[in-house]
Amino acid sequence: MKRRKARELALQTLFQMDLSEANASDALEHVLEEAEEKQDAFLEAIVTNFVSHKEVIDEQLASNIESWTIDRLGNVDRNILRIALVEINYLEDVPKSVAINEAIEIAKVYGDDDSSKFINAVLSKF
Does the keyword Transcription feature in the UniProt annotation (predicted)? Predict the structure, then answer.
């Protein structure tokens, strides 16, 4: 699986965890089944690191979004930011610039008209 696809499936997994409060393994299994994809190490690394470091990641986000709380962020934007921070903080083989660029590109597809600009503004602080 290409890394872009893994990031998109990670977004779907985190989104599902947010909305339904499903656990990570159930959400990931459901997303893979729906996409007719097999398990992928990069996808699993994103989800696993997010679950392990959720509090730290959310604290980082909260301290870098001006005039907003993390709960006020749209689900898509919040989870794109979370994935980017997992990559920046915990996946050593992903350059920071790549993580930011991928987050912006995914926001253009899955977010609203201003998502990519917002994502870029927040991630430029890291």
Answer: yes
